[in-house]
């Protein structure tokens, strides 16, 4: 039994020496490693603070002034009222009386069609009307004759004590009167029809003269004398008129992310490529509810961009702007004339020590930030609920800046308002004090002071 036990022990020893794995470190060893890491970090911070190159903080002052928030959109200039003028008649253009950029008045003749065929139709319609009117006279005479014959028979019948003429003769005479009355009515209807035909031909003669319906300027002239106009299915467009180029519209496409800020009555400015150094003023008169989707290529993919057409009224008294010009508009959606302003660079700044502590804490999710350096670590961007309760609409944004206090950067929280991309309005300071002239940290510089 002893030999068997020794053999078994030796076999187990050899098995452990050749095929066994290294045991995992215990909890005490993990704590020892963590202590080394913390000690190394502390040594690095002490070196960076005392033995390393000096760190200088770049600051900017908090100011007070006006802030203007704008939305950018692009579009094209168009006339306030643009009219396409065509021809309802087919035929040959005999003359064209206007050219591009001509100023026209309402009722002015722009072009004239050849009227030879229409004049012949007018003569024919007049002849038909004259014939119908003559037929009216003839039927009226027949009616008088039939009535006279009926009256004579009635007189004879009265004198003969109803013995003469016979009842059959009386019925024939009465029927003749009724036929004459019907013929007279038909003749009058024929006159009305002939007169309507004549008026239709005369209307076509008037339409052969293509007139301007508005006071305006000729933008497009797409016809020449001698050209044939075919209006069988639809009226061809011969001219395009703009009513008044001194008042124009700028139609821009506002992104769906910005349309909630855009309202009627807001002011805007815009520029065009023809006058890049000049700004023109405009005012929003309409924000369309209908949306339009445009495909925008982003790298290898394409995304649909939803926009809403917004119409701005433009004063073009100098006639510098022309229809079709591409414009870039800046719509003023918010204007605060007197605001406490913090530079946006200060909102993006975090001290290097705080960043290092953030990275260290991030290695252990949920770790508590305690110790002497935890005061330097910036709190995450927090959200405070307003006094209205826990509703989602009561959530308020909070921003953070850093100021120098006792020779070290200290965080300061405030509630932000409007921003124009360069500065942000301070609505309420949550801890500490921000006044015009307060220096907030925007960057750091490492190295000796020059």
Strand content: 35-45%
- Assign a percent range to the helix content: 25-40%
The order of strands across the largest sheet is 2-11-14-13-12-15
On the 0 to 100 scale, the average pLDDT is 82
The ordered H/E elements are HHEEEEEEHHEEEEEEEEEHHEEEEEE
* Structure summary, number of beta strands: 21
Poorly predicted runs: 1-10, 15-24, 363-394
Query: What characteristic shape results from the CA principal axes?
Result: elongated
Which keywords apply here?
four-stranded antiparallel sheet, six-stranded antiparallel barrel, 38% strand, 450 residues, alpha+beta
Q: What is the strand and helix layout of this fold?
A:
Elements: H1 2-19, H2 27-51, E1 55-61, E2 63-79, E3 82-86, E4 91-96, E5 103-104, E6 109-113, H3 116-159, H4 167-207, E7 209-211, E8 216-221, E9 228-229, E10 237-242, E11 247-255, E12 267-272, E13 275-298, E14 301-315, E15 326-343, H5 344-347, H6 352-362, E16 383-385, E17 395-397, E18 399-405, E19 408-419, E20 423-429, E21 439-446
Antiparallel strand pairs: 1-21, 2-11, 2-15, 3-10, 4-6, 4-9, 5-8, 6-7, 8-10, 11-14, 12-13, 12-15, 13-14, 15-20, 16-17, 18-19, 19-20
Helix pairs in contact: 3-4
Kindly describe this structure.
- With 450 residues, the chain is α+β, with helices and mostly antiparallel strands.
- The protein is 32% helix and 38% strand.
- The strands form 5 sheets. A 6-stranded antiparallel beta barrel has the order 2-11-14-13-12-15.
- β13 and β14 (301-315) form a beta hairpin.
- It is elongated and about 150 Å long.
């Amino acid at each position: 039994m002893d030999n068997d036990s020794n053999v078994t022990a030796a076999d187990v020893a050899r098995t452990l020496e050749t095929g066994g794995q290294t045991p995992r470190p215990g909890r005490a060893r993990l704590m020892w490693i963590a202590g080394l890491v913390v000690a190394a970090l502390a040594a690095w911070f002490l070196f960076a603070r005392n033995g390393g190159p000096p760190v200088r903080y770049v600051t900017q002052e908090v100011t007070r002034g006006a802030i203007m928030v704008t939305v950018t959109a692009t579009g094209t200039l168009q006339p306030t009222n643009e009219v396409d003028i065509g021809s309802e008649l087919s035929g040959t253009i005999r003359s064209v009386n206007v050219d591009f950029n001509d100023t026209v008045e309402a009722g002015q003749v722009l072009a004239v069609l050849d009227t030879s065929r229409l004049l012949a139709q007018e003569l024919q319609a007049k002849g038909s009307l004259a014939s119908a009117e003559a037929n009216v006279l003839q039927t009226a005479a027949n009616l008088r004759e039939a009535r006279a014959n009926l009256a004579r028979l009635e007189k004879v019948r009265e004198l003969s004590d109803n013995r003469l003429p016979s009842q059959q003769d009386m019925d024939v005479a009465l029927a003749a009167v009724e036929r004459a009355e019907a013929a007279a009515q038909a003749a009058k209807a024929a006159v009305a029809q002939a007169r309507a035909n004549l008026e239709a031909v005369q209307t076509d003669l008037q339409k052969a003269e293509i007139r301007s319906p508005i006071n305006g300027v000729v933008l497009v002239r797409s016809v020449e004398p001698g050209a044939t106009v075919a209006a069988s299915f639809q009226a061809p467009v011969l001219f395009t008129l703009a009513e008044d180029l001194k008042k124009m519209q700028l139609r821009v496409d506002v992104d769906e992310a910005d349309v909630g800020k855009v309202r009627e009555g807001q002011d805007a400015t815009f520029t065009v490529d023809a006058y890049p150094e000049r700004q023109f003023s405009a005012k929003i008169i309409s924000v369309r509810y209908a949306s339009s989707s445009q495909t925008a290529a982003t790298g290898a993919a394409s995304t649909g961009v939803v926009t809403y057409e917004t119409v701005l009224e433009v004063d073009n008294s100098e006639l510098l702007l022309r229809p079709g010009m591409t414009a870039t508009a800046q719509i003023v959606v918010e204007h605060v004339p007197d605001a406490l302003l913090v530079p946006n660079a200060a909102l993006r700044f975090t001290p290097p020590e705080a960043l290092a502590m953030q990275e260290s804490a991030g290695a252990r999710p949920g770790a508590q930030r305690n110790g002497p350096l935890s005061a330097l670590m910036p709190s995450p961007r927090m959200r405070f609920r307003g006094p209205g309760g826990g509703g989602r609409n009561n959530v308020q944004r909070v921003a953070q800046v850093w100021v120098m206090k006792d020779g070290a950067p200290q965080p300061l929280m405030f509630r932000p308002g409007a921003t124009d991309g360069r500065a942000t309005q301070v609505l309420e300071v949550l801890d500490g004090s921000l006044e015009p002239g307060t220096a907030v940290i925007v960057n750091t510089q490492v190295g000796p002071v020059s």
